[in-house]
């Protein structure tokens, strides 16, 4: 029997998206392997967020294919895509308010994802929510508090718990540490790195912060003007950039 680790989890072929005359992303192709973290970096307007939205099914590309475990996600019906988004896939937003139900308790936010995959036993759901709050360093006594009572860093950790409680295979992350204080960022990055490693997650990470990319990503794609201009192992790209644009990014000449 063929080992699934020998087969890409996600295959992206010639993905393009334009907004009229403006380019979103053009002819992007890559494979993502089980347990791999792929970082997508570039300055604002480079196309990285457009690409992420197309990959995650939030935006319809103009051309190309996105194959998840051999199935073309762009040909799926809306019910299939919704099911995929709450089972095998997860999406961590930059602003946790976009990924949380702000009027629902912390425990309820985590429990909702479990209920979406069929969990019905209230005691088991609350136990799992309590466990996950602990895993993201939120005290169990806060389980009935609303997210609006939490700090920004706690809200982001709660969003991570909500997304990972069902053990998805693929997680999309859009600037997960953006807008947080440096000390809060460092704590969140340590947490994310541990969870990704322990759970064997595949991740597509969009970030403007090369330090975040170096810490989390196994491999990098550098985007400029909607095009992928360089890709390779993270340390290779950051320590020996080949494209002039990447050299500017690494030397912090460009404000990203």
Automatic annotation (TrEMBL):
Keyword tRNA processing attributed: no
SMART domains: AAA
The keyword Ubl conjugation belongs to this UniProt entry's keyword annotation: no
Domain ABC transporter residues, every copy: 10-250
InterPro entries: AAA+_ATPase (IPR003593), ABC_transporter-like_ATP-bd (IPR003439), ABC_transporter-like_CS (IPR017871), P-loop_NTPase (IPR027417), PhnK (IPR012700)
Gene3D superfamilies assigned: P-loop containing nucleotide triphosphate hydrolases (3.40.50.300)
Signal peptide: none
Key words, A-Z: ATP-binding, Lyase, Nucleotide-binding
Pfam families, per database record: ABC_tran
MF (Gene Ontology): lyase activity
Protein name per its UniProtKB record: Phosphonate C-P lyase system protein PhnK
Organism whose genome encodes this protein: Thioclava arctica
Upper lineage: Bacteria, Pseudomonadati, Pseudomonadota, Alphaproteobacteria, Rhodobacterales
Recorded name of the encoding gene: phnK
